[in-house]
Design goal:
The chain has 13 helices and 18 strands. By secondary structure, the chain is an alpha+beta fold. Among the domains are: 129 residues, Beta-Lactamase, CATH 3.30.450.20; 149 residues, 2-Layer Sandwich (Alpha-Beta Plaits). Helix 10 packs across helix 11.
């Protein structure tokens, strides 16, 4: 095939101009979007973004807490539990086994039941104690007994698990007559809730923590926050009261010159406020990151468009060149392609000192085939002969349509004796082949002239000797090979 040519200057200028226009358009659009986004950042965060994140986190909290609440509700209405209490709490191992099953099946940190009649505290591992009104650690039970709501969510140390801080769902239990008979429920380890907060932070990219009604920060990703209050956070002293009262839901404040945004939402299931904060610097960093991503996308798109354009232009050019160097009938290289390929073969032969032979092939009696069967049949014969020849050659050999019913083979690194063997093989294949055409099986033969290049011999002399050898084969009766 012809060597690859350098793209013409006009084509290069067209591709460069297209790339420049694409880059300018993408850059103008990207930077305009960046500046507009940065200008509306604060308003968007305060009025839309943080409230939306608060709603999403609240939905997540509801989803994550609804299961333990439902489990506690199911325990409170479980006929086995109520029947066992009404029957006098006989065989305590039965209730312990029941609580252990609840804990295991639903993956709770703990499960429990405290009886109003006996004040016994049952849990999944056995009987813990009897609750006492004078014990400060049992205040929770008497608070739940006297409350009006069906359940509460409370954070307390778990006596049954080495005082591990636990979030309890305490559900009031009534008998069939509506009389209060105790408290049942499950507990979640605070570290599990910490994991939820961490998950929320990673998902939504915001600082998240919980504040009780007094302003005390009760739970963060790091755990229980101790005695620190919202008012003790830098920049929030004057805003804490208004945020807790509901007068403000979202506000911005400054810490060491940096602007932060805060949104507060009350979570009735926990009786806590959900606080979500965001640093403006991080928000701008996100916009900048988006800018860089957009620039990278613009670059990739520009490169792809230029590459695709270049490929299509080059393919179109290659197609034009292929049309100019390919024989339309047989699909073989034509005389123009032969000139280029032969020049390369001669240089390789001179450089490597290797032999070079050519074989000029002529289809015998082709004029008679055209006259008798028509030119369409003749074309079929030429195509069939070209395929038979091509199938007998090496990948490195060159086969061209020389003109009319003639073909030229250039055999690189091949002496005349080996070339004669190749030519004889081709002659035998053509002679033995039946060419199906027009409902008939035609047989044809070829005459071949072989010439090996002499030292320093030019192409014209080499081809002339091969032509004479081919004519000698014709004169000797056709269907044979002759060596010049």
């Amino acid at each position: 095939m012809p060597p690859t040519k350098t793209a013409p200057p006009d084509r290069q200028r067209l591709i460069v101009l297209l790339g420049a226009l694409l880059c300018l358009g993408f850059l103008a659009t990207t930077f305009a979007s960046y500046f507009v986004s940065r200008g509306s950042l604060r308003e968007n965060i305060s009025e839309s973004e943080l409230p939306l994140v608060a709603d999403n986190v609240y939905s997540e909290i509801q989803r994550d807490l609804i299961r333990p609440i439902l489990v506690s509700s199911t325990m409170a209405s479980d006929t086995f539990l109520r029947d066992w209490v009404i029957a006098g709490e006989q065989e305590s191992d039965r209730i312990i086994r029941y609580l252990r099953e609840v804990k295991t099946r639903f993956g709770a940190f703990t499960s429990f039941f405290v009886s109003e009649r006996t004040r016994v505290y049952y849990h999944a591992e056995g009987i813990l104690k009897k609750v006492d009104e004078n014990d400060p650690r049992d205040v929770w039970y008497f608070r739940v007994r006297n409350m009006k709501d069906d359940y509460e969510i409370n954070v307390d140390p778990d006596l049954a698990n080495a005082d591990a801080v636990t979030i309890f769902i305490n559900y009031r239990v009534f008998d069939y007559a509506g009389r209060y008979i105790g408290v049942a429920g499950v507990g979640l380890a605070v570290n599990a809730v910490q994991s939820l907060i961490k998950k929320y932070r990673e998902r939504f990219g915001r600082d998240i923590y919980f504040v009780d009604r007094t302003g005390k920060i009760v739970l963060t990703e790091a755990g229980m926050a101790g005695s620190k209050t919202l008012a003790e956070r830098a920049g929030l002293r004057d805003l804490a009261g208004r945020l807790l009262s509901g007068e403000l839901h979202a506000q911005q404040y400054e810490v060491d010159g940096a602007v932060r945004f805060i949104n507060m939402r009350f979570v009735p299931e926990l009786q806590w406020f959900l606080a979500i904060e965001k640093d403006e610097a991080l928000a701008i960093a996100g916009i900048r990151r988006t800018l860089y991503i957009n620039l990278a996308i613009c670059l990739v798109i520009t490169v792809l468009v230029i590459a695709i354009t270049s490929v299509f232009v080059n393919r179109y050019q290659a197609r034009l060149e292929a049309v100019a160097t390919t024989d339309g009938l047989t699909g073989l290289p034509n005389r123009r392609a032969y000139d280029i390929l032969m020049a390369q073969a001669l240089k390789e032969s001179d450089r490597g000192g290797l032999g070079l032979s050519i074989a000029l092939i002529d289809v015998d009696n082709f004029k008679m085939i055209n006259d008798r069967f028509g030119h369409l049949i003749g074309d079929n014969v030429l195509r069939a002969v070209a395929q038979l020849i091509r199938g007998s050659l090496r990948e490195a050999d060159i086969l061209c349509r020389w003109g009319g019913e003639e073909f030229m083979i250039v055999l690189k690194g091949c002496r005349k004796e080996a070339a004669s063997i190749v030519a004889e093989k081709i002659r035998e294949r053509v002679d033995a082949a039946g060419i199906a055409s027009g409902g008939e099986i035609l047989r044809t033969t070829i005459s071949v002239g072989i010439a090996e290049r002499l030292d320093g011999e030019d192409e014209e002399s080499l081809v002339a000797r091969a032509d004479l050898a081919m004519l000698a084969a014709k004169s000797a009766g056709k269907n044979r090979v002759r060596i010049a």
